[in-house]
Structure formats: C-alpha cells, structure tokens
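Lecture 7 notes. Example A: sequence first, then its structure tokens.
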Amino acid sequence: MVVVNKTSVELNHFMFKKLLRVRKANPSDLNEVYAIACSVGTSEKISEQGFLVDDYRSNPKFYKKKLLNAIMNLEHFYVAEYDKIYGFMMAYTKEQWLADNPDWITDVYWKPDFDKSKLDNFVVVDKTAIKAGLTGQGIGSLIYTRLLSDLKSEGIENIFAETIISPQPNFASLQFRKKQKYTLAGMRYEHYNDKLYTDLVYYKKVE
C-alpha cells in the first residue's frame, strides 16, 4: 500500500492518472460536480483551456438543480476522483437526447458521405468538464475509456459529440475529438441565450 501525503494536483502525471478512479456519479457528488462546472463554466471563455457554455456561477440554485437532475436520470454520468472529484462527463442515450432536442437530427447539416444508418442507436456526449488548470492530464481520456467500455457491453456502437466553433471556438474540445479519433459528421446552428452558436458534430464508432 502506498501512502501519499501530497494532493493529487502535486503528483506527477503518471501517479495522478494511476490513482484516479472513474465511477458513475451519485447525488452526493453534486457540490463537487458543481464546483468543477463553475471552474470552467464562467463568463470568461478560454478557448485553449476548454469551457462550458453556461456561466454556472450566475445562478447556483438553477444549475445545481439541473446537474442533480442529470446525475439522477442519465445512465452515463461519470466522475473521476482521487481525494476529490477532478472531472465529469455526461452522455445521453438517443431517446434522452431527442427528448430534450427533438429536432436535432433534422437540424444537423450532415456531410453527404455520412452514413445515416448510424443514427439508429447512439449516445451523445454532451458535457466533459475537467477542473480548470488540469486539462492535458488524461482525466477526460480515463472517463471516456469507461464510457466506451460500458457502451460496448450495452451493444451501443455509435457516439456523437458537438464542439462549438463560433462565436468562440473551443480549441481544447477540438483537440480532444482529434485525440479520440472522432470524424466530422456535420454541423448545426443553435440559438441559445440570445446568441447564435455554430457546432461541429463529430462521430465515433465504439470498438
């Protein structure tokens, strides 16, 4: 047994990844999950760091309720923790995603060569948030590996994810899509909070 007296942030890259544990979120994680969201979901959007669109600090009661609802209802809501939670990822099944976004399939401008049979059964990775300052440590990849394992056991072969490129591009998210070998499937425009966003829609097969 190895006893570590330093915090995870101080550990070297290898040890940090080795000590992290990925599990499904539960309601008792809410405050830590909210803190992670607040660290990258602010009024200031940093393209290189990655960001969440909403300003989570602007309305704690509203966003905590929203996150709690996701934790309780999404089958694929994961956290990465050691001494505390350092990141989370949430993914929606096709049914869950279309319940919230009923026109999503028709709103996407699919690439002409995209095989739409992949839309028969899929999940959408909606949010991946890593504590500010810890991107590039492999935390997102660890959570993603757990998601892939679960999807494979459930017989789900198709994953979609969106990345914002306008009004401000999320470079960290684009880099993650490249790292995980997603391919571009299409794009869509989205009106949200009185702004027009341009989203790239990426696809990956579960293997």
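Example B, a different protein, same format:
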Amino acid sequence: MEQYVRQLDDLRARIGEAGSLLVAFSGGVDSSFLAAVAHEVLGDRAVALTAASASHPARDMEDARGVAAAIGVRHVVVRSRELEDPRYAENPRNRCFFCKSELFAICRRVADEMGLARIADGCTADDRTDFRPGRDAAREAAVGSPLDDVGMGKPAIRRLLAEVYRLPVAAKPASPCLASRFPYGTAITEPRLRAVEAVEEAVRAAGVEVVRARFHGDVVRLEVEPASAPLLLADPGRAAIVAAARAAGFRFVTLDLEPFGSGRLNRP
C-alpha cells in the first residue's frame, strides 16, 4: 500500500500542475478513479465528460451518472457519433482509433468552451502491453494519461478507490464497448449492438455478471467464467436467455467451452 500512496501523491501533484482538467469519463474503474482525484485536487476546475454512444450499454451510462454524483464532480454528457463514420462501422483492426478520435474531438471542443487547460483519459500502466489503437488517437489529440505517467495499474487503482475514496465502483468488472463483441471485419450497426446488449442483459438476469455475447451472424457465442456456466444451463435462466437471443434476431445460442478472457478477439 505504501507504494500505491506514493503514486497517488505523484498523481495529485501532476493534476494540480494542470490547473484545470477535463476527464474522458466512462464510469469504469480507471476513469472514475482519475475523476475522483481530479475533483479532490481541482474542485470545480475538474469536469468529467461522458460520450453517449450506441456502442456502449445503457447500464454504463447509468453507472457513469451514479459514480459522478457520488464523487461530486461536474458531469457533462455529449452525444458521440462514431457509428456515422464508415471507417469505424466497417470494424477494421484499428477500429478503436476512430472511436477515440471522435471522443477526443468532443473533449477538445468542450474543454475549449469551458476554458479547461488539459484533457486526460483513464489509460493505465497495464494498458501498455495490450493492443490499444486508441492510444494513438490520444497522442494525436494531445490527451494525457496521468495514471500511466505515474505507473499505476489496476490493483493500485482498485485498492485506492475502495480504501481512500470509498467508491463501490472499485469492484466493477471491466466493461469494454459493445463493438468489442464483433470479429474484425464484421460491420457494426446499431441494431446489431442492441442485439448483443439484449442477450448480455438476459444473461445477467440469470445471475451471471461477467459475460461477453460474441456476434457471429445468426449465432451468438457466450463467454462466461467457469463457475457461472451451470447457471446458463439450468431453467428458468436457460430458457430466458434463448428467448432473448431469438427476440434479438439470433437463430442459435452457444456457450463457449473456453472460459471468458478479455481481448480474445484480438488473437491472431
């Protein structure tokens, strides 16, 4: 914990030097921590911005509003239109670059309108080893990553959120955008996004919190942790999930025998 506290002090100092800051805020663990520290240091000179997008589950917007209220930070919601960009909708391997470019353009406009000196995202030291085209967009837009700058990873962030800032979001599972459910090259449309979201909500209603509903045409493939699999095979959960998948337009629902793993569609 001593190392985490030193990193936190370094982070506070860096944020203080900014004078004012707009945080690209999803309501997830990392951006919530950054927003909490920014509000602590800068008060009203810190603003959290959330992009309302079809690519994100409705529950994530609800979470973002709730976390921002718990922190007390000023929260701005702006519509994002990355789906209107064919470079994004075609779902190339660098899809995230176009999404983040849209987000950071919005952040820049709002920061300029509000007179905020800097923009920051929630990228951490753990993200250095992952495939993150969005980081190229951040560099092009001069968006900082202060959590990464001080060497903070997920364990430090979760512990500090829980023990210093007392925010329940510390235990929230990762929630990447719904576009991550589609193999590269599979076109992304709003109806398809809503379809995988509906299936995931049905799985959560059956008692499984961590799930990815992967889109494969008329097949939806469910990835869950091993301990959760029995919940999907027993009624009434099984029947409800099948009914939700059929209503969403899928012909078949499959349960992947390989356990859930973040980033599996990034494999060669």
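Note on Example B: The domain at 2-171 is CATH 3.40.50.620 (Rossmann fold). The radius of gyration is 19 Å.
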